[in-house]
Design the sequence.
């Protein structure tokens, strides 16, 4: 399919109700309001067509950008392309999921995560924390920089409640991911989670809640899932 054909198909799949839901969560126009489940069904159409995926992201439509992230092969992405994607992402669904997921499975995941999470730009910082968290969830513990991750846990412990809104959310998620997927640092993450307690994040006119990190990690522990890596973080 061509870019025009995919965009037309997205327009047909969109609904006003889904669009209103995305807008309440912070989405920006243009968007059609296509459910993520329907976007996933289109991956087989776009997959392996790198140029089409790049064109979809460049369209500026949230639906097309999300589809691009589901379809692209992360290993083919250059630093310049991922920097461009991060800069064009205009709300958290794109920065924390689309861009972060692709970046985490790229060959330059750590380089980008380290750069982004210290950014003064809130959206870019959330992308950095989410990229690093996703990277941890799919990378064997022996390949992780445990000293660096412990330092980031300490940063979360001491600054999370004074950080910017969505950065608080992704910092909290980072603690959960370390506690759940990085066995050598799980106990430290549990200690950090207990100390930070509940994290307040403004989620607009939505029913979304910030997960309590300690409860989330303990639940994974009770299920015997600590340290079990994911096959992919792109979803």
Sequence:
């Amino acid at each position: 399919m061509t870019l025009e054909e995919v965009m037309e198909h997205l327009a047909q799949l969109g609904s006003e109700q889904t669009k209103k839901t995305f807008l309440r969560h912070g989405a920006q126009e243009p968007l059609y309001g296509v459910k993520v489940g329907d976007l996933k069904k289109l991956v087989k159409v776009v997959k392996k067509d790198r140029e089409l995926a790049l064109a979809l992201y460049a369209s500026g439509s949230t639906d097309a950008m999300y589809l691009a992230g589901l379809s692209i092969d992360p290993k083919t992405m250059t630093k310049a392309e991922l920097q461009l994607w991060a800069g064009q992402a205009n709300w958290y669904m794109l920065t924390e999921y689309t861009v972060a997921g692709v970046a985490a499975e790229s060959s330059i995941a750590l380089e980008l995560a380290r750069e982004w999470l210290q950014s003064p730009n809130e959206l870019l910082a959330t992308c950095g924390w989410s990229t690093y968290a996703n990277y941890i969830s799919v990378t064997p513990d022996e390949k992780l920089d445990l000293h660096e991750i412990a330092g980031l846990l300490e940063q979360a412990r001491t600054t999370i409640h004074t950080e910017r809104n969505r950065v608080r959310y992704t910092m909290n998620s980072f603690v959960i991911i370390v506690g759940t997927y990085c066995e050598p640092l799980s106990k430290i993450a549990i200690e950090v989670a207990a100390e930070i307690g509940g994290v307040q994040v403004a989620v607009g006119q939505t029913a979304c809640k910030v997960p309590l990190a300690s409860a989330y990690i303990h639940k994974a522990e009770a299920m015997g899932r600590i340290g079990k890596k994911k096959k992919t973080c792109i979803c």
About this structure: The CA atoms of residues 3 and 52 lie 6 Å apart.
